[in-house]
Specification:
The structure is a homodimer. With about 500 residues, chain A is an alpha/beta fold. Chain A contains 20 helices and 10 strands. Chain A is about 50% helix and about 15% strand. In chain A, helix 1 packs parallel to helix 10, helix 6 runs antiparallel to helix 16 and helix 11 runs parallel beside helix 20.
């Protein structure tokens, strides 16, 4: 991986100064084109060995282009507040919107490579981390982001010479830290591990570009040219409007039996049992949320279901049991313009709770495989890939001890009609019914199909779907509360 | 202030249960009206003595209304990340958008009252804090927010009885903390100080409502009724479209001499001196940004000036001297829809740098008194009050060791014409010139008047305007860099 970056590449001052003005003008031009199109963001990762010119490169790119539309982030070890969230959270916060450039120093690659170099993780753990990264970057690129990954390299000799030179000069001696010396000792090991990581994560969508860092002229020109060509090529593709890949169709079960059909929607709960159980489970939920170990976990609840299935009422029965200071409910409707300029999961990452907190979503990230699929707001390819992306998302949360519970509330078509009609008749419930609801109702079968596929494809071990028979509201609410209590108890026992 | 909240108010169970259904329905109705209008946010502060039902009240409001549009924040002592920002930053982050309700526990009142009760600050410091709060809340209400402040009170005897009762029951004994006992000893002092704070901060725009907390029925009904009446009254005003108060006109100087006319725009810098000084001051700025004490401060730069005055070029000369990892440049154009749903200063608070960082604004919060004034995007009353609001904003930053430097770049009308024409002629500069620029040029005098008023009214001791003669770009850039270096040096010396 690094062989060609140890050849001692060099560009003379004359050549550099000749090439520079043209390069700068061209870079500025594509940057403004990017801004004008506002059709994709650029995520530029800057990694590599110490002293290979990472900081200098970020500076020079900001100098050459319009720094007002470049956002540079240096990710130091996570702060207290960041540690309360899943590790990827801070990178999501920093993603640039469409049209802008984000330069990431110390990206998601730093931790696995450093940990492995210091022998803190096993090879299998490194492999898992690489696998997660590839999937994450694939999601970013599928969502339209241009991911550019630069690795700045120095050969062992070049590294030694650099440190020697710095040490010699009293003015620069302070720049040589103990860590530099330590890293030099680890050089061979680090080089081997980094090489492996780069090979495994160099994909067609987001390949690595290794740049020799010894000669600043060579380094700067190479970086600039590479960035320019990548941007130009991507912008020209934009004009072509390349169609999304064809995705194979999902086969409907030939006997037409689907999981949602197996629910017994006649299940009921009488008023008295309901009242007793409601009190019982709300009390229990409240206790669980005050359990000392609850501080080590967080809770994400997603409520989905057909219109008028009783999501709002069920959510209210849950929040009634919780202290208002620990939860937040987010109703999902049309995204804001800041949300629209980001990958579709971004708006959910924004709301991910810190430890000891609860985030409740009234409709959720599953909109992609439900309404967006049925209403054709995205292509078949896009909603098909969403299954895996969503599974990854939920797995990331689970790994960080965020318990993800997903409820699908199902009612019959007749029950829906009865509820719609009732809503239209009762004055204070009229706001709950809109022409959209009637339109969606006509697509009952399409929604049912989408929901069945969703349940099958996203019921993971860490976050299975809980199907709720909701024709009887009392029954549904108790089942939800009971499930919640059981799952939190199980989670607390594992902590 | 607390006399009527120590009378032992009480509502019987029967009365409570009779009133509740109507109240809840009415509250839900106004909440949906609020959501539908999306014309103002509701900021509900919940304060008071321990055990007077603050938490219970937040819970019950979430239960009665639609919790999906209520956001409850409990402000604990600030975290590491929050301490790196000015104290008000975290409250700004939590402000609800128009149409939504934010419940703030432990608001901006907590710290001054607690500090004074423990004797950590002087009376004069408390007075200053109160003064700042009044001005802040006035800004919020002038920006349209409905600020509701509830204080839950218990008499000393009621407090004693509560603690005694909790201690008696083994199941609740754990709820009595050492702090509770300590607070009880401080009761009289706390009551006196809180009473004073409430009196001083009970304004016509944001009055305090003191509620006796002993009897839950009384407490809940009073809170609900008060919230309902306040919301209803505000919503009915909305329909009336009450005009903004008339503001007295600003008098133009009768001899027509204004500060910007006193600038000698013929000032120049020859190429050689420029190159030397550029290198000198950029080197110096770089050193200053690496000074160990720079970690204790932050830097905010605002660039304003007529179109084509050279703001972008000047900013580039500054960023060239800085490490890309410590600065961020924000160009200010039309606000996003999330920004539009907030007070106008919100979008700048979002970008306030943490310690050791630099935020650069290409155009700034001064848009309110420049473009918004001239183009009549806001009323005269609104831009007139902005002078004081902006001074407060900058003072809050300065107090937290954020150095605020503001540059006004001035060129002559002839020079502007020459630059516009040049931009139209040079292909790669065409993106810089739009029909808007030509339109604004016709309003030269109106902008000049606005700028002169701005400079006079917002040149505070902590953040004076630096006027830059910018007909000669070299001269302007050097003056900016020199000013920057001088001011940072002064600041570092004071740290």
């Amino acid at each position: 991986m690094f062989e060609s970056a140890e050849l001692g590449h060099h560009i003379s001052k004359e050549k550099y100064e000749l090439a520079l003005p043209l390069l700068r003008k061209a870079l500025l031009d594509v940057q403004y084109k990017l801004l004008e199109l506002k059709s994709f963001p650029v995520i530029l990762l800057i990694s590599g060995v110490d002293g290979a010119g990472k900081g200098e490169t970020a500076n020079i790119l900001n100098e050459w282009m319009d720094a007002r539309h470049i956002h540079t982030y240096a990710f130091a070890p996570p702060s207290q507040d960041e540690l309360a969230k899943p590790p990827m959270w801070r990178f999501w916060q920093a993603l640039p919107p469409k049209g802008e450039i984000g330069i990431f120093f110390g990206s998601w690659y730093t931790e696995p490579i450093v940990q492995k170099s210091y022998g803190e993780i096993k090879t299998s753990e490194l492999d898992n981390a690489m696998n997660d990264i590839v999937r994450f970057e694939q999601m970013l690129t599928e969502e339209g982001a241009l991911v550019i990954k630069l690795w700045f390299h120095l050969s062992k000799d070049a590294q030694k010479n650099r440190i020697k030179a710095l040490k010699k000069d009293p003015k620069t001696r302070w720049r040589v830290s103990k860590q530099d010396i330590k890293h030099l000792k680890l050089y061979d090991r680090f080089r081997r591990i980094a090489g492996r990581v780069l090979k495994e994560t160099s994909t067609a969508n987001a390949p690595w570009m290794v740049i020799e860092g010894t000669d600043p002229n060579y380094r700067n020109l190479t970086t600039g040219e590479y960035l320019l060509e990548t941007l130009k090529s991507r912008i020209s593709q934009h004009k072509k409007k390349t169609p999304k890949p064809e995705a194979p169709p999902l086969l409907k079960p030939i006997d037409k039996l689907r999981i949602l059909d197996t629910l017994d929607l006649s299940k009921q709960q009488d008023k008295e049992t309901y009242n007793n159980q409601l009190e019982h489970y709300q009390g229990k939920l409240n206790q669980l949320s005050r359990h000392p170990k609850f501080k080590k976990m967080a809770l994400v609840l997603a409520f989905e279901g057909v219109d008028a299935a009783g999501k709002g009422g069920a959510i209210r029965r849950v929040t009634q049991a919780l202290d208002a200071r620990i939860y937040n409910v987010t109703p999902i409707s049309a995204p804001s313009d800041e949300e629209q300029a980001q990958p579709y999961l971004w708006r959910f990452w924004r709301k991910i709770p810190a430890k000891a907190h609860v985030a409740i979503f009234d409709r959720s990230w599953y909109g992609r495989v439900l309404v967006e699929r049925v209403e054709k707001f995205c292509s078949q390819y896009d909603w098909l890939r969403a299954y895996a992306e969503i599974n990854d998302f939920e797995e990331q949360l689970s790994k960080h001890d965020v318990l993800v519970l997903k409820f699908w509330l199902q009612i019959t078509q007749e029950e829906q009609l009865a509820r719609f009609t009732a809503r239209e008749e009762i004055a204070y419930k009229q706001f709950k019914i809109t022409p959209d609801d009637w339109r969606n109702r006509k697509k009952w079968n399409a929604y049912k199909l989408a929901a069945a596929d969703m349940v099958e494809r996203t019921s993971s071990v860490v976050a299975p779907w809980h199907l709720i028979e909701a024709n009887d509201k009392n029954y549904a609410r108790i089942k939800i509360l009971r499930t919640l209590c059981e799952k939190i108890e199980e989670k607390l026992a594992r902590l």
